[in-house]
Amino acid sequence: MARLADYFVVVGYDLDKRVEGEGQGRILQRFPEKDWEDSPFPQGIELFCQPSGWQLASERQPASFFVAVLTDINSERHYCACFTFWEGLDNLQKAEASEVDDADEDLAVVQSAKFFAPKSLVLVSRLDHTEVYRNCLGLIYTVHVDGLSTPLETVIGNLLTCVIPIAGGSQRTITLGAGDRQVIQTPINDSLPVSGSSVAQLFRQLGIVNVLYLFCAALTEHKILFLSSSYQRLTDACRGLLAIMFPLKYSFTYVPILPGKLLEVLSTPTPFIIGVNSFFRSETQELLDVIIADLDGGTVTIPECVHISLLPEPLLQQTQTAISMVLDPELEVADHAFPPQSTQSASLKIQDKEIRAIFLWLFARLFQGYRWCLHIIRIHPEPVIRFHKAAFLGQRALSEDDFLMKVLDGMAFAGFVSERGPPYRATDLFDDLVANEVERIRQEEGCPHKVMNHVKELAEQLFKNENPYPAVAMHKVQRPTENSQNTSQGQTPFPVLDEVAVQLFIDHAAAKLKTAPPVVKAELKGMVPSGPPLGDIVDRNGNVMANSARRLEVVRNCITYIFDNKMLEAKKLMPAVLRALKGRAARVCLTQELNQHVLQNRAVLDDQQFDYIVRMMNCTLQDCSHMDEHGIAAALLPLVTAFCRKLGAGITQFAYSCVQEHMVWTNMQFWEAMFYSDVQNHIRALYLETDDSPQQNNSERPDGSGREISALELASEQNRLWPTLSKELQAERVQKEESTVFSQAIHYANRMSYLLLPLDTSKNRLLRSTGLGDVESVSNSYVTNSIAGSMAESYDTESGFEDAESSDVANSVVRFINRFVDKVCNESGVTNDHLKALHTMIPDIVQMHIETLDAVHRESKRLPPIQKPKLLRPTLLPGEELVMEGMRVHLIPDGREEATGLMGGPPLLPAEGAIFLTTYRLIFKGTPTDPLVGEQVVTRSFPIASLTKEKRISVSLSMDQFVQEGLQLRSCTFQLMKIAFDEEVASDLAEVFRKHVHKLRYPQHVQGTFAFTVGQSGKMVVEHKTKDKNQSLKTLSKNLVKTAKRTIGRQNVSRKKYTPPTWENRSSFQSELDEDEISVSEEVDQGALTLSSTIRSSDRQTMSNVVERACCRDYQRLGLGTLSNSLTRSKNEPFRISTVNRMYTVCRSYPGLLIVPQSIPDSTIQRICRCYRQNRFPVVCWRNSRTKAVLLRSAGLHAKGVVGFFKSPNAPAAVPSQADSTSLEQEKYLQAIISSMPSYSESSGRNTLSSFTSTHMSTSDSSDKLRQPKIGALMKQVMGSKEDVPGTFSRGALGQRAKGLPPSQPKVSGKARNSPRGKWGSIRVSGRLSAYNPDVGTRLAGKESPQPNGGPSEAVFLRQQKAYLYIIGDKAQLKGGKQDAFQQWEVVPIEVCDVRQVKNSFKKLMKACVPSSAPPEPSMSFLRCLEDSEWMVLLHKVLQVSVLVVELLVAGSSVMVSLEDGWDVTTQVVSLVQLLSDPYYRTFDGFRLLVEKEWLSFGHRFSHRGAQTLGSQSSGFTPVFLQFLDCVHQIHLQFPMEFEFSQYYLKFLAYHYVSNRFRTFLLDSDYERIELGVLYEEKGERKSPQVCKSVWDYIDRLNKKTPVFFNYMFSPEDEEVLRPYTFISNLKVWDFYMEETLSEGPSYDWELRGRQERVAEETAEKPETSGPKSQRRVVWPCYDNLSKTVPDAITKLLQDLQSLEAELGQTSDKWKETWDKLKNTQRPETKLESKPSFSSSLLMSSNIGHQRRSQGVYLQESGVGSSINLALDCEASATSTPVAGRPSTSTLYSQFQSTESENRSFEGILYKKGALLKPWKPRWFVLDKTKHQLRYYESRQDKECKGVIDLAEVESVTAGTPAMGAPKNIDEKAFFDLKTTKRVYNFCAQDSLNAQLWMDSVQSCLSDA
Q1: In a designed cystine with 1308, which of 1312, 1444, 1728, 1871 is the match (CB 3.0 to 4.6 A)?
Q2: What is the mean pLDDT of residues 421-432?
Q3: Mean pLDDT: which of 8-22, 1260-1274, 1727-1741, 1764-1778 is highest?
Q4: DSSP code of 1747?
Q5: Contact at 8 Å (CB) between 806 and 847?
Q6: Considering the entire predicted model, what is its pTM?
Q7: 1234, 1454 in Cβ contact below 8 A?
């Protein structure tokens, strides 16, 4: 029974304490006056009566009612029902007057106004009967207002003495003595919450998903704030939220109505559920971590920093569905054609119960089986119960689930365990559901309707609980009459009540209670059912591994072998076992099997057995999480103390000393759970012994089900009997239990010291790696006894260890064990004496254990070491030297699966071997640990210069008990090494290794890189000893720099000896450099002198060097002017080679010679260059031979330049001239370029408007017209959507027009305006034309572009036309620029991928292609990661822009690429454009030239982007060049027949451009290369022939030896312009990123291959005598070099040919000659077969009908050298001889005919230029009129024709010019060229006369034909 109301309080407005309109309330009266003993009077009621503050009102407000909830210090809830009404104030004037001093005029206002003050009647109770309180307080108010005859004291006295039952479902009728009557229904079961309709209301207000969010947030302990303008709704919402959390109880701050005064409570750090009036909404805005639910607006706002873990699927989905079926039953049938007549949703009260039933059902599913994870650790005097969280999560297979983890760790669940844990208590609906309905819930969960039926049943029970009787209409409560509520006049204030009268009532009632007999209500206690054990539930969703039975068999067999001492068998099975142990079933099986081999807690093994068992244990533990949710570690714990080996006299080593390195042992929760489960078993045993009950054998269950009695059942039985036992028996049982727990605690202190103290206590391994000292216990116990805590500390201090030698390991272990003991002993009620004893014991235990360990450690060191494989030495390049000897390491598998055997095939990794650091590479070489592939050699290596990231990792190897230090090294050659150092490697050695790696990776200066140090001694930096040497060095360097600048020259001898000054002197060296620069630049600015006048005689040779540079050779080939031209200034050439930059003063990063328009003097260039970033002004780099359009490159403009160039210049008036002049000069420069184009200069009067348009109409030939729309489409793609484009120009232009200014009126100074630019200038100035074109794309696409103010002249002018010059610029820079009036040039804005994007994309690409570990979730597959990296998007952008530029050039417009600084994207685009447009660049020579010209000479910053030195380390690695090579690879894939080089060539460059093996790709510009003297040395002295300094020379040499770089499908079409598809779907991932060859490492260092083969052959020859050997061999994709083991057909045939010739003792030809011979013999055949389109290279497989560009034919590119000797037996080779050697019929035919002399119409010796890279050779040529061909032979006597030129294909014969390598001292006129449809032949006769004869005879042949 309980009081209906504890206190009645009257609270009024406190007039004395008003502060500026802020009133306060005060308690006027309270009854009873003195506190009840069982419930003290709550403080602060006056705040809660008016939560928004006490204020006066100018008119009377309606009475209001709400219930606030207060929580007292014992966390009891008090319900305060507040009834508030308003009373008029009379004495206000006095109060006001005293406040108002000087404001007299206010008084008048105040007096006339009438004010009303609030007054509250408050009931305080511990019961929650809202309606009853509403009625009671209403009644009191009615009695007062209507002046009823009943005295108020009586009513209140009756109210305070009313007593009602708390639960039990009875009805009580109460009356307060004012003619009223009320019925109170109490709920049947007290434990179920009473919700009325608040839950349904909450869902109505917020919606399903929002409430589920709040529900999950409340359970996972987030802060929740409700807002509403209604107080009662706040209370209801909070009540609803608590109701759906049942059976969990909310245990944090709970304030449904928070007064405004206390708002600072909201910033508390603890979780809460609080309601606040919307009035205070603004003050809740700055709460960062509070979830705000607005009940009135129906929104839930979750801050960004808050992450709510949601229910696990499928529960979330099912719950949502079920709730929507309750709240919106029509949803299901909304689509039915014949919906049922009425689907009336149930009343709110019913809906409320149904929703609660759904949540009950949800909790039953979440917590099913929880009772099987309870540990009962004490039964008497009170049950103490703990929950084993890890086991529960493991068995439910939810150990990863965030939500459940947080719930189980939460306070609410801890309360749930302590409340529902005890096995003997009253049960309720939830207990029943979770135990008995599991089966039903499981069967129904898939079917929503069955679930709904179940829910309805539960809802009925919940409803019945709240409303046990049908509703009764016996209520009768007076309400105030209408008029009394409305009358404002004459209402008396609420009277002061007579305390004595009320107190009398209370005393009277109390006396009555004393005499009344006590009400005894039997509480029904019973055993709580546990439900089915968890194991049965899980098997459905537990992840059972495939064919696990086979795996278990393997584990069992292996263990049997070990114990039967069949070690060889065991060794074979071991890898399979270690793999199987990844699965949970196998691990459980292992623990069970091992258990069977333990006798009396001991099993002694020999060394090898011990080793294997330990390995298996380690492997098992390795995959356990630190929680040990599957109980594997728990099962192993008794075993690690059982298995042991004898080390010597009386010294035994146990397995635990070898399995310590696992996280699980340092996890306090694991130990607690283990301890509790052991204690439970012992206590169960204790009671099974005592109850020798005569029923039946006592371990069986009483119901005869034959299953063992669980500990909980036993406990429940004991609890039932407890009251019947005598005091002595009770005490005895308590004492027995306590000593059981105590003995277990001692046992565990020992166990923990076993597993926590490392074998070598001097090495603090374990604690260092886990931070053991700080692991806090976070178990479910939430009461920690503070007394015990403080005791523990004092013991620690007392026992203060005297033994100084016990290391810090001992201390931390003791602390850890002490903490554990304190915790478990407090929870399990161990007495203080025992606890003290434990604390003194622990240090001794630890100390003792350390002593035994020392002996064991000593002995274990004496064991013979396990045989480790011997370290293999790597082969080194010539000049490469070891920096560090090999260190023994394990190479660990990373995220690539091929080598680990997961994809099939043997596991090559992990491998054991050594890592070597050389001056050039990092090399791992070793053998796989798996014995099945133990004889293979695994090599992984990468150049040290390509290292991009190095981080420390710690690795635990399955075969080893220690966590090892390791390194993860990632390289940008797409290689990753995860290595773990063997324990024999000292950790300081590993540190030295890291330092060396770092030093080699980032040398101080480029000269420290391998390309420079190669062949020198291994010392990295030469230290200078003497001081004076340094002095001389400084002066030397100073002079050197000067001479370098003056001569750009070949270095004098002294220069070669130049060593960089030591790094201490570097700074002074630098400063001198700087001084020098200044002086140089001053010298040069004297004016642009012509080349010959400035060059002194001594430097002429230097100039010739410059001329030989790639650029010049190429400019001559393109006809862009030769040097002689530029000296004599022949005016007819549009371009000249300018030497303005010969000193690198105009632009540091440009080459010395540049192509500029003829008409631009050097002085102009020096001014123009300032407008561009890095001074990189526009220069010509290529010209289209057909349209004569040119391609220019430059950097983007400076911001100033953009304004000055594209906008109408509006510089401030003070300095107009200078800014404008550069801008005009820039325009002049562009104009000069445009004028150079034939299409432009053809239009005769190019300055008149009409002719300008007309030429356009006439010159654009038909092909251009066709192409126009295509370019337009391309343009749109490149520039983004149509809408983007105008935005880039329009702002400026439209703005100006709006202001009424002529749009392009330049404010030019007088001089400039009259500048002689003809009409062109004047039209511009008149500003009549719109300078603004809204959309480049539309014009290009051939649409008319709309004119804003369309006058006729403009319409004519804007007819469809293409600009002469397109400027590709960066969108970001060109904002607000404007077009040129005549549209002679036009800006195409594109979005550029900046360097940062490339860098980040590359990082992600590396992680995708070479992941460091297997992906955490399966969704992050390779393709997904590849997509995330956006690498393909970047390639697509670059290719797209390049194709656009190609199209524009083909269409006859010039293009200027002007992006970023002009050295990254610009270079990529410009190079790709040339590659696509000009077939020459697709040959070996051409590609080399392209790279040398565009990348090296034009200053792509290789060193900076490759982070090659210490200085550029911070900028990181940015693979701009790699991106370009990838683009070339994409084009190569689409046009495999257009390239002379193979894909391997591209990979080779990609590898070596970061490897630093060659000097080619070092340094950032020609200027820097000259300064270091690298530029021209390549042709000079070759002191060490074996060291190639240039990658090109290396490729040339290699190409002579082997066809590895050659593309057999090369058969180009003349003048072919390639237009690749650029969509991402057309791009492929480059296999360079993915492939690896573990057998030999990367295949790009060829010297290594040759050596490896030789070694392999020597070893292979010996054992072959043994027996017949198969010709077949297994090829593994990640191990073998595929192109070598499976070469393509042509390479194979060339190899066979070579080996045959070698066998026959003939000298074999070079492969290229053989190939050319074959091609030439094929040519006549083509004619016979009359398929002229056949491409000769494919006739090698002449049965293939070949379409141009077909992807169908794809000979695999080769990475194989001809030096490879495939061991074929003689017979095999013999059969292939005829194939390779048989001359074809056509050859015989031509041979036969060629000897007949009558066909030789003219013959003689001519020099012919050979194929690529070959010299000119003299050949005997025969002109044959009858066969209409020109044949040639090696010599006059030669019978076999070497080649045939068909005259039908000859287009022209012209006089030629001497080219490179031509025979010396021959007249220039002796050269002539023969142009066929396929290629141009260059010939050279003995003299000019002879040449003329030849030309005439060929010409006559042609005309005759």
Answers
A1: 1312
A2: 81
A3: 8-22
A4: -
A5: yes
A6: 0.53
A7: yes
